[in-house]
Specification:
Strand content: 25-35%
Largest sheet: 9 strands, parallel
Helix content: 25-40%
CATH superfamily of the largest domain: Glycosidases
Structural class: alpha/beta
Shape: globular
Number of domains: 2
CATH topology of the largest domain: TIM Barrel
Number of strands: 24
Distance between the termini: 84 Å
Radius of gyration: 26 Å
Strand order of the largest sheet: 12-14-4-5-6-9-10-11-13
CATH architecture of the largest domain: Alpha-Beta Barrel
């Protein structure tokens, strides 16, 4: 009997040890380079963020959110971006209250959703509107940035250690609590550190800031620039060339007497401030950390017209040197030149994520297909969600959710592409790319071009210029899967020899990861031109895939070439 009890105890101990080993062997959400691109890995599998950002105050109240969480069910959305603010978790110095965050995570789990936490600490949109009252009132202990005229502004200065230490203390407390309640579930995927940082004037002119500006450029930054000179961005090289690439001196001696030098100076110190906080959080719970960016828009000429020092594209080298704990920079894109902005943020960065945008299906599909992005998130997703679950935007989310495993597989293989076209850019009605043995040509659909109607609507779900898009996956040598709306897609041999024709086209859908073909599409359903002689000159047969209207479709095509 005694030996049986001992054997039973030994088995229990082994099982317990195995459970601990398993728990320890499953890392928290993290980024991995797969096939030359970064993917978000959650519980060992790639995860595609089909997200939406709540309005800034929505997540502060569990009562306000109680009817919104279930409204996301069936929308295709799998992740909610939600604010946790410093003022709410530390209303009194050293006394933390995580009840709001706990409720947010609890309710997300109940509705099978993931969360990205937006840490509104020291900075929000060029100011400090979410700091606790005890920080705000004690302006001598927690100094503010100063203008050239010596006036303090309602924005904490990045040049004072006590400022970042107070923020860091609260952030670390949050990350410790998050580890305690979520390291097994992995409801929270990653964290945004601060929000749209930078000053809406040239730079901080406080006494400490002024002294540092007149001092030598930090050796750590100079060493980074020297070591990486051949790989620096053209904006960095252009500014540095003002001194013929000096390796020592004050900021103006190294970069020149101009407002851009002030921007680089502020970028370095905002990066250092942010790195202090992000790294301390990772030391506790190492999930990815990112920063979002208020962009420089048309008409923004000099730093200060847009937040000076924030991680806009032209200062990424400075931020990379100063904030290695930040995993990626995410642009908040509301403007028409969406693809141009993405291209600038894809330079030297493999993890692409858009945390704020309009609710454009084309924007989401293009990011995920063309830049192999880890996810997309329009702002204000809770605004009217119950009335817009059947919009073309959520149609696209539901469709991508139905084959997201296939999308992430092809992102890693490099066998996915996408095109983005907008009626706001009428001079660009065609995009093409090579995928496999074929050139893929994407045009705005003829009905789309002919309509020339002015876009109507407003708010989160109002269109800002109709768009066309296509996401293309190379399934096999002559087989392509295409998701599209408002476009026609044609094919030609990549080597320019011969003509590409259709062997078969099927419309269909995915359910539980399985392809379900529906209609056979041929003849009139694929006819794009009867000018066969002109099409033959371009290597095309006169047939193509037609995606009419805003609602996305999936079509699968098998090709052959002839001469």
């Amino acid at each position: 009997m005694k030996s049986s009890i001992l054997r039973f105890i030994a088995i229990c101990l082994l099982l317990a040890a195995g459970s601990v080993a398993h728990a320890q062997s499953t890392p928290p959400p993290h980024l991995e380079i797969r096939g030359g691109t970064s993917q978000l890995i959650v519980k060992g599998k790639p995860f595609l963020v089909l997200g939406g950002e709540l309005r800034n105050s929505s997540s502060s109240s569990p009562e306000y959110m109680k009817d919104i969480w279930p409204a996301f069910n069936g929308s295709g959305l799998n992740t909610v971006l939600a604010v946790v603010s410093w003022e709410q978790i530390e209303p009194e110095e050293g006394k933390f209250d995580f009840s709001q965050m706990d409720a947010m995570i609890r309710d997300a789990r109940a509705n099978k959703l993931k969360i990205v936490i937006l840490w509104f600490g020291s900075f929000k949109n060029g100011g400090s509107g979410y700091i606790p009252g005890w920080v705000g009132a004690d302006y001598k202990r927690f100094p503010r940035a100063e203008t050239k005229d010596g006036l303090s502004v309602p924005c904490l200065s990045v040049f004072y250690e006590q400022n970042w230490e107070a923020d860091k203390k609260a952030y670390v407390a949050m990350m410790k609590h998050l580890k305690d309640i979520d390291s097994e579930e992995n409801t929270v995927l990653f964290v945004q550190v601060e929000n749209e940082m930078g000053l809406f004037f040239e730079r901080d002119f406080s006494t400490v800031a002024e002294g540092l500006f007149r001092s030598e450029v930090p050796k750590s930054l100079m060493n980074y620039l020297i070591k990486n000179k051949k790989d620096l961005l053209p904006e960095t090289l252009a500014l540095w060339s003002n001194s013929d690439y000096a390796t020592k001196g004050s900021w103006e001696q190294v970069f020149g007497k101009n407002v851009t030098t002030s921007e680089f100076f502020m970028a370095w110190h905002y990066a250092n401030f942010t790195n202090q906080i992000a790294q301390a959080g990772k030391d506790v719970y190492p999930i990815p950390a990112f920063v979002n960016v208020a962009l420089q828009h048309e008409g923004d000429i000099v730093p200060g017209d847009y937040p000076s020092g924030g991680p806009v594209a032209q200062v990424h080298d400075i931020w990379r040197a100063g904030a290695p704990a930040i995993d990626f920079y995410s642009p908040d894109i509301y403007d028409a030149p969406y693809s141009d902005f993405l291209d600038r943020y894809a330079r030297k960065q493999t993890a692409i994520f858009v945390p704020e945008s309009g609710s454009s299906a084309a924007n989401a599909v293009y990011l995920i297909g063309a830049h192999r992005g880890i996810g997309f998130s329009p702002f204000g997703i809770d605004g009217g969600i119950a009335n817009h679950r059947e919009s073309d935007f959520f149609d696209s989310y539901r469709m991508m959710a139905s084959f997201s495993d296939l999308i992430t597989e092809h992102q890693a293989k490099g066998t996915i592409r996408a095109a983005w076209l907008s009626e706001l850019n009428p001079e660009i009605t065609e995009k093409e790319f090579v995928l496999g043995d074929h050139k893929v040509i994407v045009n705005l659909s003829r009905a789309f071009r002919a309509a020339q109607t002015e876009s109507q609507g407003s708010g989160m779900f109002g269109p800002r210029g109709r768009k066309g898009y296509a996401m293309v996956l190379l399934m096999d040598k002559n087989e392509y899967l295409v998701m599209g709306a408002n476009v026609q897609v044609t094919f030609a041999p990549a080597d320019g020899k011969g003509i590409t024709a259709f062997a078969k086209v099927r419309e269909g859908y995915f359910r539980n990861g399985t392809w379900n073909p529906v209609r056979w599409l041929n003849g009139d359903e694929t006819n794009v031109s009867q000018d066969l002689d002109q099409m033959a000159l371009k290597g095309q047969s006169g047939y193509g895939l037609l995606f009419r209207g805003e609602k996305p479709q999936l079509q699968r095509v098998w090709l052959y070439d002839f001469k």
